[in-house]
Specification:
Largest sheet: 9 strands, mixed
Bound molecules: flavin-adenine dinucleotide
CATH architecture of the largest domain: 3-Layer(bba) Sandwich
Oligomer: single chain
Strand content: 15-25%
Helix content: 25-40%
CATH class of the largest domain: Alpha Beta
Distance between the termini: 38 Å
């Protein structure tokens, strides 16, 4: 499990860190304070919960062990897409179609909520561009059509079928075949969104302390909880854990119900415009349909942000080189003009069912975690349902009950299981490639 470092950490080197609009750092907590709700973890799960709470008039203190958005929330691909890490068809198998429709409704609401807040609070986290294109690595248009039909019929999702020729007008590569276009999904700059949200939480009376790790949580005899930090404490009525895979011994049940997956992003140096247009001739977000997929998009200054791969033990030494090779496999015409400027990794938190874990361990002790590799919309959903439950007694969070039993996820063996699953995915991808 990735442990939180003992000492507070600065942001790692990423494109997002270096294009942050303004890096305002908050002071660590150094006294004992009281509040209604203490949110632990300053990723998008924590920040979305905190903004939901202050919007509903609640008193909130959020603490973050490092910097806000230090974890996955400040390092991701920036795709804001409906759905969850688990696919809808699989969810429907587990909880039935009607339940899946409710989860989908939450997801489209969570996606819209991000855009609404960007607008309402004037958060400068663009470019915000609509459009995500899923492409096939193999030539089976019927499968694409049948997926679109299901999504349209059962979930009313406005997906468009794109034949191979249309896909290749945008992505000039012979690797790809027919795909689907999702017009309502979009992209943003995640770390600028994190900072915009934090500023608004404070504007509305919430407090944020960075470099403040929750060390333990103790039940108070008079009700509520005491959250201890290295140099202070927070007396609160309710607590919300949004610690992702770093939860560690703060809560052992959460720790053992999840396993980590490391995944990677590379950002190229700017590429000459004509050369880029002759390869990736689109500003949509792209992903392919392999289990171990590539996903990527153009950045405003003619760079490509390229994501993919997973690993057991953090980033390989030659990460940048590996990612550039992956890119050139799809766009060989960019040979000679693609150079990596940034390459980084981040830790994802997965439960075996690949769905978020959202619920209450005991009255007033909430968890909102396990968003996996498709977490930007789900963290918005989690923040919405948990803050509404606390503030208004809303019960929509119970839609996640079937996934929130906190079963043992493999403990120390879990990363090895994750890596084996990844190798299995790659083997299946090879079969897909051979079957083109
Ligand atoms: C490389 C990469 C690419 C991705 N691409 C996408 C994408 O394009 N689209 C998408 O939807 N999703 C994507 N994801 C997934 C998405 O980023 C995550 O699912 C989401 O950000 C998880 O948010 P979180 O708040 O749960 O976790 P995190 O962002 O990891 O935040 C958890 C925070 O809690 C803090 N913390 C933990 N323990 C304590 C403690 N005891 N006290 C105080 N603070 C604590 C940590 O320091 C950390 O900052 C990607 C992830 C990665 C790593």
């Amino acid at each position: 499990m990735p442990d939180l470092p003992n000492d507070p950490q600065p942001y790692i080197e990423t494109y997002y860190r270096d294009t942050l609009n303004s890096d305002h750092q908050r002071e660590a907590l150094s006294e004992t304070v009281e509040t209604e709700i203490c949110v632990i973890g300053g990723g998008l799960a924590g920040l979305s919960t905190a903004i939901g709470l202050v919007e509903k008039g609640k008193k909130v203190i959020l603490i973050e062990a490092n910097r806000i958005g230090w974890g996955a929330s400040g390092r991701n691909g920036g795709y804001i897409a409906k759905g969850y890490s688990q696919g809808y068809k699989q969810i429907a198998k587990q909880v039935g179609l009607e339940h899946t429709k409710q989860l989908h409704k939450l997801s489209t609401h969570g996606r819209a909520l991000i855009k609404d807040r960007i607008k309402k609070y004037n958060i400068d986290c663009g470019p915000i561009k609509n459009g995500v294109l899923g492409v096939s690595w193999n030539n089976h248009p019927d499968k694409v059509k049948s997926y679109i039909d299901w999504m349209q019929k059962e979930l009313d999702a406005p997906l468009e079928y794109w034949p191979t020729e249309k896909v290749r007008e945008h992505c000039k590569t012979e690797q790809y075949f027919a795909g689907f276009y999702s017009p309502e999904d979009y992209q943003f700059h995640p770390l600028n969104y994190v900072h915009g949200l934090a500023k608004e939480i404070e504007n509305q009376g919430g407090k944020i302390h960075e470099n403040t790790k929750a060390i333990n949580i103790v039940d108070r005899t008079d009700g509520g909880y005491n959250v201890k930090t290295p140099n202070g404490a927070i007396k609160c009525d309710q607590v919300v854990l949004c610690c992702s895979i770093y939860v560690d011994d703060l809560n052992k049940k959460l720790k053992y119900a999840a396993f980590p997956v490391y995944t990677f992003v590379m950002v190229t140096k700017p590429i000459p415009q004509e050369r880029l247009d002759a390869a990736l001739n689109t500003e949509y977000c792209i992903f392919d349909n392999r289990y171990a997929q590539d996903y990527y998009r153009r950045l405003p200054d003619n760079r490509i942000l390229w994501g993919g791969r997973v690993s057991l033990s953090g980033a390989p030494k030659n990460l940048a080189e590996i990612m550039v090779k992956d890119l050139l496999k799809v766009y060989p015409q960019l040979e000679g003009v693609v150079e990596s400027e940034y390459a980084w990794g981040g830790s994802l938190c997965y439960a075996p069912h690949k769905m978020p874990q959202i619920g209450q361990l005991k009255p007033g002790y909430w968890y909102n975690t396990c968003f996996g590799g498709h977490g930007l919309v789900p963290t918005s959903v989690g923040g919405d349902v948990v803050s509404s439950a606390i503030a208004d007694g809303d019960e929509r969070y119970k839609l996640f009950e079937p996934f929130s039993k906190l079963n043992f996820a493999g403990g120390a063996l879990s990363p090895y299981i994750a890596q084996s699953v990844y190798y299995l995915w790659r083997a299946r991808d090879l079969l897909i490639s051979l079957n083109k």
